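From the methods appendix. Each design record in this collection lists the discretized structure first, followed by the designed amino acid sequence. Records were kept in a plain field format so they could be parsed without special tools. The example shown here is representative of the layout used throughout.

RECORD:
C-ALPHA CELLS (223 positions):
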C-alpha cells in the first residue's frame, strides 16, 4: 500500500510517500496536478477542501474543540465568495456575510492553494482527503497537547512521535528539505500517516459523520 502526505510550502507542495507504513520518498512538487497524477491509493493534504452549505464548516469548529489550547492552528476555511475577492478586506467582508465570521490573513493566503487542490478533491473525494497535522499529531500523542511546532521542543516531540509510529523522516529529505521548512516536512509525514489510516479504514473524521457540501461531497478533517 502506497500513500502520500502533502503539505503546502512557498512555491509548491512538500510530499512524503509511505509504502507499507514506511517512508519511501520525500519530494517537492511545483503543482498539485503533478501530485494528482501519482497512482497512490490515498492522498492526504493539509488544505481546506470543500465548503459548508451555510455558516462555518463543522470540520473547523470540531477541530478547534479537539485541539483545545492549540485551537488557533485551525483556520476557518474561506467561503467560495471569499475566495473570489482580490483583497483580504474584501474576502473578510464576504466571509462575514456568508458565515458570520471574519477571515484571518493566514486563511486568506491559503486561497490559491485551496483553488489549486479543490478540483482534484471534487473529482475523487474518497482518494483525496483533508488532514490537519495538529489533529493527527495530537492523536499520535494520545490526546496530549504538544508544544508549538516551530519551537525546538515542539519539533523534537513531533519527530519522536513519528519515529515511534515507524515513520523515520530522513536527515536529508532531498528537495523537500530545500523548499520546505522542518515543520513542513514533519507535517507532510504525519499527513501521510493519516492517509495510511484512511487506506486501511481506520481513520476517524471531524465531524463524525462528515458534513456534505451542495454537491454531496463529504467535508471533513480526517485523522
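DESIGN:
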Amino acid at each position: 500500500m502506497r500513500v502520500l502526505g502533502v503539505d503546502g510550502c512557498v512555491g509548491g507542495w512538500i510530499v512524503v510517500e509511505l509504502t507499507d507504513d514506511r517512508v519511501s520518498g520525500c519530494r517537492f512538487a511545483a503543482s498539485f496536478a503533478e501530485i494528482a497524477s501519482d497512482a497512490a491509493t490515498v492522498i492526504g493534504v493539509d488544505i481546506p477542501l470543500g465548503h459548508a452549505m451555510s455558516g462555518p464548516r463543522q470540520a473547523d469548529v470540531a477541530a478547534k474543540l479537539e485541539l483545545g489550547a492549540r485551537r488557533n492552528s485551525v483556520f476557518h476555511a474561506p467561503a467560495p465568495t471569499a475566495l473570489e475577492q482580490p483583497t483580504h478586506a474584501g474576502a473578510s467582508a464576504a466571509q462575514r456575510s456568508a458565515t458570520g465570521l471574519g477571515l484571518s490573513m493566514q486563511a486568506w493566503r491559503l486561497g490559491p492553494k485551496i483553488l489549486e487542490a479543490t478540483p482534484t478533491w471534487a473529482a475523487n473525494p474518497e482518494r483525496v482527503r483533508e488532514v490537519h497535522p495538529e489533529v493527527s499529531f495530537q492523536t499520535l500523542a494520545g490526546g496530549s497537547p504538544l508544544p508549538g511546532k516551530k519551537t525546538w521542543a515542539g519539533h523534537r516531540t513531533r519527530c519522536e512521535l513519528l519515529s515511534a509510529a515507524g515513520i523515520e523522516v530522513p536527515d536529508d529529505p532531498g528537495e523537500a528539505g530545500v523548499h520546505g521548512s522542518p515543520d513542513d516536512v514533519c507535517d507532510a509525514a504525519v499527513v501521510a500517516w493519516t492517509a495510511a489510516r484512511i487506506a486501511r479504514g481506520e481513520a476517524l473524521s471531524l465531524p463524525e459523520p462528515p458534513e456534505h457540501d451542495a454537491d454531496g461531497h463529504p467535508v471533513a478533517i480526517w485523522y
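APPENDIX NOTE: The first helix runs from residue 32 to 36.
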